[in-house]
């Protein structure tokens, strides 16, 4: 057996073990006959590799969160219990854990006095303003608010046709004019920088930005269309003045 085949066999074996563990620990089925039946059903409906990949991701998340908690807690069992609660009790990364709920699962919570709470709120408002948290991102608005793009889009060609012109004749006239005036033109695209995350300290400040390249044009019906390509430049160090 060559190295690749051996690796694939080991991967499949580990995946089967992970699926069985998933059925036992997550689903709660321990009876051997029911375990085999559940395994066959899952493998047939979902596939063994996706289930194994999902379970490995869960185990990785649990391991990493436990290690991070251990850097702040001396009690390793407590770190494991908190990590287990955070990884299994909440089903969305956007779920906001309040102070009471965080305290209930074992995290050490400080209730700030009025002065500290005011400082924390001011910091949040600063981040909120910088990252435009109160504004929904709208590419059309970004195009219209850009002076260069607005100038290009605002130059709208209008064909003046008498109001009583029959629709078919009007359509033919517009088609003829379009054929005569049609040409390929070069115009600049619009670059938009969107901050997605920020980390600050007394010494350094970093911002994670996503760059968006927007190509825009008017359709034949004068509607505004665009094509947007997103790419990221990653974390950038910035001065505190820029923040």
Please give the structural blueprint.
Layout: H1 3-27, H2 32-45, H3 48-70, H4 76-88, H5 99-104, H6 114-130, H7 139-145, H8 147-154, H9 167-181, E1 190-200, E2 205-218, E3 224-238
Antiparallel strand pairs: 1-2, 2-3
Reading the helices and strands in chain order gives HHHHHHHHHEEE
Number of strands: 3
Shape: flat
Beta-strand portion reads 15-25%
Classification by helices and strands: alpha+beta
| Tally of helical runs | 9
Give the C-alpha Rg.
29 Å
Distance between the termini: 58 Å
How would you write the strand order of the largest sheet? 1-2-3
Mean pLDDT: 79
Task: State the oligomer.
Answer: single chain
Low-confidence stretches: 1-8
């Amino acid at each position: 057996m060559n190295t690749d085949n051996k690796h694939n066999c080991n991967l499949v074996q580990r995946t089967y073990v992970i699926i069985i563990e998933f059925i036992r620990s997550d689903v709660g089925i321990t009876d051997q006959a029911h375990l085999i039946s559940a395994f066959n059903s899952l493998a047939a409906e979902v596939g063994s590799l996706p289930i194994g990949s999902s379970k490995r991701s869960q185990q990785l998340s649990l391991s990493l969160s436990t290690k991070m908690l251990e850097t702040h807690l001396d009690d390793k069992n407590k770190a494991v219990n908190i990590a287990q609660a955070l990884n299994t009790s909440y089903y969305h990364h956007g779920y906001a854990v309040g102070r009471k709920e965080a305290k209930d699962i074992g995290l050490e919570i400080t209730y700030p006095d009025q002065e500290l709470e005011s400082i924390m709120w001011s910091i949040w408002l600063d981040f909120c303003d910088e990252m435009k948290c109160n504004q929904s991102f709208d590419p059309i608005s970004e195009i219209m608010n850009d002076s260069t793009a607005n100038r290009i889009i605002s130059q709208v060609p209008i064909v003046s046709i008498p109001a009583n012109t029959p629709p078919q004749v009007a359509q033919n006239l517009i088609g003829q004019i379009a054929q005569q005036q049609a040409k390929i033109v070069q115009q600049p695209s619009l670059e938009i920088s969107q901050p997605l995350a920020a980390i600050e300290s007394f010494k350094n400040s970093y911002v994670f930005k996503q760059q968006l390249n927007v190509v825009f044009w008017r359709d034949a019906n004068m509607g505004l269309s665009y094509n947007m390509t997103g790419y990221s430049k990653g974390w950038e160090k910035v001065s505190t003045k820029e923040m």
